Amino acid sequence: MMQVLIFHVHGICTPEQFTLIKAADELGARLWVPEIDNMDEYLDQLNIVVAYLLEAFNAVDPLRILVKIKLHLLAHIPDDIHQFGPAIRFATEIYEAFNGVFRLCSIYSNRLAPSRDISQKFASMDRAGGAVGKVLQSDPVFQRHLGWVPQAQVDPGKIKPFSACKKPEIEWKATSASSHWRENDTPSPGSLWKIGSSVITQSGDTAPLGSWVLCLDSAGRTIIGRVHKLLLGQNSLITVERFVLGSQLHPVFGWPILRRPRGPEITEEGIHIYALLSTIAAKGTVKPTLKTQEFQEREATDRESSTIQHADDDHFILNLAALHNFARVCRALPRHLTALKPLIQDCVAFHKEASLKAQATRMTKRQQAAAKKREKAEAKKREAAEAEAAAQRAENAEEEEEEDESSREAGDEDIAVVPHRTQSTCKRRMVIDSDSENSENENQEPEAIVVRQSTRQRRAPNRLDL
């Protein structure tokens, strides 16, 4: 995805984001090299592209370098490569598969000294490594089960033909190569030739028709072109559509441009293909305007799918973000077309500006975080108040239900003793009223006393009975 992302985001992202993606492409292609020809030159370019990426990150988000530790580690990659060689040789992703082994070595132990148990287990595995390696190298059964097969022998220039039913043989005079033949031993016009579908390059890649390749002419000069025709007969013949490398880089992508030759630039010489290339249209638009028929189980269906078609077939960009054969491409191209330049010339002023921007961004983020924290606290308080109010309402409703129930039960009991309770209650009220009116009407005092006496006399037998 990284190799073609820059072409997909062009025109839909900000200039700062586009620069960041391009810097990541440049760094990825230079890290993913299996061999280094000139270590000093390579490290100089690597330091430039690392600084390029960090400056691009500063332009997008100055605080990112303080958060992502990987950005800080990028500055140490040149030192590691100078000591250990190409980065892909000491990449650690493949060793993450041993995490399960470490875990099992720690689980199946007494867990009193896990480091010692793990080291002893790996030491025992290392002692058995030589014997196991001999078995894997000598036993083809183990090799087939593990998918470990010997490396295939490369046969550069070998052409794979189409089947006879798809592409029947044609005569030499009907081929496009016959009009461009300049050698003395011209094939006979009536000789039959098979049409090829792909050819093996010197690097071991398979180049089908339409592939972009690096070739060498009879004088040993590098030619960049596109595979046009493949013929297989008495010998293998390859017709390449040659393109000329421009002297200037693309103004937007900053990569070399390929164009069709004009006038005296057109030559017809023998070639030797040795590597594949990756290109994309340099002018116009690239849209899915071409409709192709879909195949299922090798049979044509009624469905159609959209494929990419270049609007301009005369100008192309050489994609230097491609990981495959990047070192070979850099060897073939002039130095000024592959050398990188720093993104920022005045680094001190840019860093001061980025620092001020980072401070403002951090202050804004802190304010936003504090406001968000306050909002959460207020929301929690509101939720707690609402929950407390709901609980209070539920408790009140429950108490009201209990009071209603108790009142109903009390009402049922009052029905059985209404005459007696009513009489005693009236007498008590009379006594209370007489006490309150004693100061105003002294003539009613004996009556109140009599009522109290009558009440005591009436209650006394009841107490004796109990």
UniProtKB/TrEMBL annotation:
Renumbered to this chain, the Basic and acidic residues biased-composition regions fall at 375-385
Give start-end positions of Basic residues composition bias.
Answer: 455-466
Ranges of biased composition (kind: Acidic residues): 397-415, 434-445
Region (Disordered) residue spans: 361-466
Q: What is this protein called?
A: Uncharacterized protein
From which source organism is this entry?
Mycena albidolilacea
